[in-house]
User: Fold this.
Amino acid sequence: MATEGGGKEMNEIKTQFTTREGLYKLLPNSEYSRPNRVPFNSQGSNPVRVSFVNLNDQSGNGDRLCFNVGRELYFYIYKGVRKAADLSKPIDKRIYKGTQPTCHDFNHLTATAESVSLLVGFSAGQVQLIDPIKKETSKLFNEESSCQHLWKVDWNEERENEGSKTSEEALVTVQTESHTVQMPVPSPPSLASDLFSSVQFAERLIDKSRVTCVKWVPGSESLFLVAHSSGNMYLYNVEHSCGTTAPHYQLLKQGESFAVHTCKSKSTRNPLLKWTVGEGALNEFAFSPDGKFLACVSQDGFLRVFNFDSVELHGTMKSYFGGLLCVCWSPDGKYIVTGGEDDLVTVWSFIDGRVIARGHGHKSWVSVVAFDPYTTSVEESDPMEFSGSDEDFQDLLHFGRDRANSTQSRLSKRNSTESRPVSVTYRFGSVGQDTQLCLWDLTEDILFPHQPLSRARTHTNVMNATSPPAGSTGNSVSTPGSSAPPPLPRSNSLPHSTVSNAGSKSNVADGAIASGVSKFATLSLHDRKDRHHEKDHKRNHSMGHISSKSSDKLNLVTKTKTDPAKTLGTPLCPRMEDVPLLEPLICKKIAHERLTVLIFLEDCVVTACQEGFVCTWGRPGKVVSLNP
Assistant:
């Protein structure tokens, strides 16, 4: 693990760090927060989240920033590394009563300088569509419906004994089929009488639990997906209403630990689809870069990857311990990284359907993981034999927007037969409740453990090596004639048992069902476009406290419940010694409170903590003199 300033205290907040690219530096003048800059009391509050959108205006200041702090929601012009933040002039500011914003997402497809669509999820289950530029609220989804009930009042005898006989109010217990509440009402005419009356309760029609994640469906101007702590996800269309009564559902497709229902209605209404996934809260989901696949992480510790249009389960993975809290895709869609309550980051191969590495650097729960599409190490290497097609191999190498034009030009040679193969190092980062930022390099000695490298090009310390996966596809690179893997360069290699392919697909494949879901899930998705898109803190949940305790909640989707103790040591959840263990490139304490945001932009890295401070870290060579 890289260290800096060896004589300094470990608890010191770092304001800069160095990687192979150079020096990353915190820009104090580019810090965004509430206008008074007072740290927010985060006890019991939902995580601070940050969303970005670029409006492509002519001024050169097209970036817009949205973040939530407690009951408040702010919308600013984001000046990044160019100019200092002006907190006195938010474009829009909203304060909510009775509920708190939990997450939000901009529609990048429809954003203009005059209008932008922002979805906001709330702790009470609502989803709001607002336009911060026009300062308008367009729609409210999963709103409350007033239901009138007949109830019987039983006067509180204890209050009467305390002398409430002469009071204007008495405390009564109100009981209905679904509610038991206490409320003050005017004193009765006599203690012996029973008072019958009616009261209105506000009931949420679709889902009463907290919204954990909300995102626009890639390539769509109207479809969006919402996840709840109930474990359910819902597909909405902004052009449809939610109706005035609770929706009735009919089963569309069911598989291992998931079920999908359609809304049974004479006319099209929201939600279009209801997904029930795993056990416990559905903590986060992420669409693949092409928008065709959906990765979900749940409190039951499972990563589940679905084909979004056909609603087929592509593959699964189990955490080493506890729930999974965050997930992200590599820019080329080949790898998925998760983080959670086991304090680990886990790298899962989408192609092979198996865990290929774990990373240990955090001392508490990992709250956010993200790939950096702008930092890519690309080097020419010696010719080698490849067991898959040339198209498959070159497709692996070509992704995203790269850090330098020279890198971009080399990747653009993927169709040239004269150019030599290129090696790619993936960079991703993670932040956690331990207030630390970790950066990781995923290199060829991890991706292709049998590939002899002409020269070392890794900053990652590989503690263990894997044997070839049983039944692996032709997408892996190997040396002809070799029966055993050669030692990995610049790594400590230990022989271990074979890890088999963990990829799985649902056996439920019905043509009628597939065509039925496409009626809903593919609305406005004909022209997909690639778009640059917590539980309470428990520090004692660390690697030293890993156990196999499982949730007591019954699985409502399948009849059998997965036993974590039985998954450990299987391809679903390999043992620690069966896969490479990564060490972070850097690991720095950068905040006083738990970190909740990590976003990689072209000229900076953005982080945020639960105190409500959104920080900008200038990339090497990108820092300029900041003027208000």
